[in-house]
Amino acid sequence: MTSARRRMREAAIRLFAEKGSTQVSMSELAQAAGVARGTAHNNLESTDAFFREIASELADEMNDRITISSEGVSDPTRRLALAIRFYIRRAHEEPDWGRFLLRFAISEQALQAFWLGQPVQDLANGQQSGAFHFRPDQIPSAISFIAGSVLGAILLVLDGHRTWRDAGQDAVEFVLRAIGVPGEAAREQAISDLPPLRELPSPPTRSRKGDVAAA
What we know:
Elements: H1 3-19, H2 26-33, H3 37-43, H4 47-69, H5 76-93, H6 95-104, H7 118-129, H8 139-158, H9 164-178, H10 183-191
Helix pairs in contact: 1-2, 1-4, 1-6, 2-3, 5-6, 5-7, 5-8, 5-9, 6-8, 7-8, 8-9, 9-10
Organism: Sandaracinobacter neustonicus
Keywords: DNA-binding
Protein name: TetR/AcrR family transcriptional regulator
């Protein structure tokens, strides 16, 4: 990703979140990113298309980062607890990212992939193993409940009502208890150590001829 495109991506996330709408002009985006309007036009088809691209990338990236950050953890209860807290801590560390989720994660189809990655599989595994207590047909409702809990916690953090740590712990405890995890066990998962959210490996650098550059 070029430097100009990276700046436009960061500016677009901020503008979309601030406006609560995808109606951002190319001129607005160029000014916010600190690039020439011609650069924006040359790099982007339209701001609407850029929104869809960003939404899809954000969902895929977060799902992938949660997956690699949970490597070696097989317990679905632990995995679900980590995922919830990863979201809330990242929103605290990257407020524009968090506000983008609050604005669009429920209404925009491209962002609904946030809730269709690891959490679905962890819920299914937990239900099958008896760790969670609900019917298999209730998984969509469970996902909806978790999404609402996460977004509500993010709102509390960004509005300054709760720290990310307290909001994350409460969300985990309430969610786990709601799906059948005993209270003491739910609390233990809520307050356990939270590892770093790992970055994704950078793609290989390519030369102008398309060959992978030597390291």
